[in-house]
Specification:
alpha/beta; two-stranded antiparallel sheet; nine-stranded mixed β-sheet; globular; Rossmann fold
Length: about 270
Amino acid sequence: MADPGSGNPPPIMVNGIARGYWLRVPPNYDASKPYKVIYEGAPCGQPTGGNGQPNPSGMGVFNYASVDNGEAIQVGLDYGYAGICYDNGNPNSNDFLFFPLLKKMIESMLCIDTSNVFLSGYSSGSWLVNQLTCAFGNEIRATVEATGEEPAQQPKCVTGAHIASLFLHDVNDQLNPYAGILPACARALKNNGCAPTTCDPSNAQTTQTWPVPGGITIPGMGKCIQFNGCPADSPVVFCTTTNVDPGGANHYERVNSFIPPLFWGFLSQF
């Protein structure tokens, strides 16, 4: 695992700010085989994403390495805002300069399937995902995110970019209110050319049950729906839980092992 926090490799300098990253490559990496890549955004104040350090398990935000059968490379983005968060309320964030530089570097270092570039985020990292899909929509194949929001101020958005999307949110989340993620979902519906353009996961007329991958139980009366009328290659899925972690959940991803297989089950179809 690369650890720029230790200076090896060195962080990327972006407008005078040292931006780190961490990198997980499958143990049987084959330089002749193009790999899917997952860029990850962490919650605020967590070891993952801050100063290039992985979390204590060494797996990043979500432990995809336990479920991806060695098919994906994981790249975690270091924080750029006061060292504790992404600058996800700023339409001129340093993150918009950092991401393309990091992406270009990863693609020069490793064998990447550039048609399968994924974004994954939790809390502040989900806010970041929603900014990056706006700014770099044509370069992203799919996203998976938990307990985030759509930033009120976005950079200039790419329109018409088809991005397969899965949103996971607790309906009683107090730190990232449920209503805050609905505009991001609505943007995905509009960009993907889905029949509904309003994100209402409770509307039985515009949704159908999304079959959760086998062996996964979503806690808290959890369920997943898929919006009708979306292109087959660009589905929009919305999963809800109730009172799994209503306090906002910097521990949501730590105590719920269902998330990595759920998210990878969605991403692996592409």
